[in-house]
Amino acid sequence: MIDLHVHTTESDGSLTPEEIVRAAREAGLEALAIADHDTLGGYDRARAVAEQVGLDLVCAVEISTRFGRSATGRRRSAHLLGYFPAELPGAAFRAWLCELQARRQQRNERLAQRLQELGLEVTLAEASALARRLTGRVHFARVLVQKGYVNSIPEAFRLYLGEGGKAYTPLEKATLEEAIQRVREAGGIPSLAHPGRMSWDVSEVLGELRAAGLMGIEAYSSEHSPAQTAMYLELARAHDLLVTGGSDFHGDGKPAVRLGTGVNGNVCVPRRVLDELRAACARR
Ligand SMILES: [Zn+2]
Ligand SMILES: [Zn+2]
Asked: Which residues contact 187 (CB under 8 A, 6 or more apart)?
């Protein structure tokens, strides 16, 4: 069993990098890719423990991007996974990630201000106290729950933090095409994360994304039904893309999602997925 998409406290997960490595080992995983949002910090911290416990730890990152606009003019967002299973990315790629984090920090400051304007006593410091490093909307959601403004994290997103919510503050993201290029330049494999979550039809633009340098698609995901998984496997074959997959485990933020197996065992990523990523890197 392998899991190529998990989050730690270095982004919006609830387990530390060290804890997630130990949990992965206990769950019987052979390989794990830490794919925190816009940072390699989780991977960097987890390396030593992974070596100690004999877990095959893969360097990865999940980048929040935007991709054009929908027919109705709504901002379309996409998550891009970058995998570095052979060689680690260099300083230029890390510097670019730092720039993305700085933009996130500015967004968070504006979001806190917006919540306060709505009369909700929520500060960035309170949200950041729940995050180890990278503060995301889920941390604001937890403060809203703790203070009794909402009953649950999904409700916090629906009423305040999500698109259409009263305090929604968009993040100035990289374009999907730029992120694909950056990952490739750094020697990595760009793969489109959980395509089933997109509000737009991925199948219509896969040819375009392939031409822009996309190399993979996350067919196996806890967000996919068996029919969706089959569809994305078929699309990967048709567009000559690699397949990737993982649970998108976040810990407490998404309690139904289990490490390695997803929601009620709906994820099972074959070992060959990682072998094929490594083979693709070796071919370059
Ligand atoms: Zn994602
Ligand atoms: Zn994710």
From this structure: 84, 86, 87, 89, 90, 281, 284
Quick one: 232 exposed, middle or buried, by C-beta within 10 A (0-12, 13-18, 19+)? Answer: buried
Query: Residue 132 above 70 pLDDT?
Result: no
- Report the sign of the C-alpha dihedral through residues 67, 99, 139, 224, in that order: positive
Angstrom distance (rounded) from CA 57 to CA 32: 5
Distance CA 40, CA 26 (A): 23
Task: Rounding to the nearest 10 degrees, give the CA dihedral for residues 182, 74, 69, 246.
Answer: 40
CB 141 within 8 A of CB 161: yes
Compute the average pLDDT of residues 271-279. Answer: 97
245 CA from centroid of ligand 2 (Å): 11
Question: Domains of the chain: which residue ranges?
Answer: 2-90+175-283, 101-161
CATH code for the part of the protein at 2-90+175-283: 3.20.20.140
Ligand 2 center from residue 248 Cα (angstroms): 5
Q: Give the Å distance between the CA of 244 and the centre of ligand 1.
A: 13
CATH of domain 101-161: 1.10.150
Same fold, 2-90+175-283 and 101-161: no
**231 and 206 in contact (C-beta within 8 Å)?**
no
Q: List the one residue out of 132, 136, 191 whose CA is nearest residue 162.
A: 136
Element (H, E) at 228: helix 226-238
Give yes or no for residue 148 having a pLDDT over 80: yes
Please state the rounded mean pLDDT for residues 54-72.
Answer: 90
Quote the ligand 2 centre to 119 CA distance (angstroms). 31
- For residue 3, give the ligand nearest its CA: 2
